[in-house]
Amino acid sequence: MRLLIYIAPHHPLFRHLLSAMGALGTNIESIPIGSVETLLEHLRRPSAGRCICILAPSGRKELRALVNQRHLMRDLRIALVLPKDDGMVADGHLLRPRFISQENTGFEDVKAVVVRMAQRLLDESTYPLQSACVGMGD
Predict the structure, then answer these.
(1) What is the SS3 assignment for 138?
(2) Cα–Cα distance between 77 and 62 in angstroms, integer?
(3) Residue 48, pLDDT score
(4) Quick check: 83 and 105 in contact, CB under 8 A?
């Protein structure tokens, strides 16, 4: 399984986020992505729906660029890390993330959510019919 980590190299927390996500487990391949264009290339690949994506835009301009391409992200499991700017939360919701955090949290919360998302994806791929039928016939 792939974990796409979008964070620009100029972002002040670039190294901190990558190191926090570095030790997630052997089943997860972390791929750091430094530009929106490179992220879009990854999302256009056939296996893009089977990955998790952490998006950490450094400001409104980057977030707007991501929101403009949200049609490519509709099937992704997204964790969104936003700067401490209340005005960006509403725009961030347009990406339909499963989790929203702010930069000042230390990323432990993001890591815990990503681990849980990865486990669920692995469970779905191991038992696809069981996952699709949960709740049916109860």
Answers:
(1) coil
(2) 19
(3) 59
(4) no
- Span 100-113, pLDDT tens digits: 998 877 788 888 88
**Quick one: pLDDT at residue 131?**
45
Tokens representing 56 are 């950490």
Buried-exposed string 12-35: b where 16+ CB fall within 10 A, e elsewhere: ebbeebeebbeebeeebebebbee
Non-local (6+) Cβ contacts of 80 within 8 A are: 54, 55, 56, 92, 95, 97, 99, 100, 101
Q: Compare 132 and 91 and report the one with higher pLDDT.
A: 91
| Residues 6+ away with beta carbon under 8 Å from 9 | 34
User: For residue 77, is pLDDT > 50?
Assistant: yes
- Crossing angle of the two packed helices 60-68 and 86-93, in degrees rounded to 10: 10
> pTM for this structure?
0.82
Sheet with 51-55, strands from edge to edge, namely 29-33, 2-6, 51-55, 77-82, 99-102
CB atoms within 10 A of CB 79: 25
Q: Are 61 and 90 in contact (CB under 8 A)?
A: no
Tokens (6 digits) for 51: 């990955």
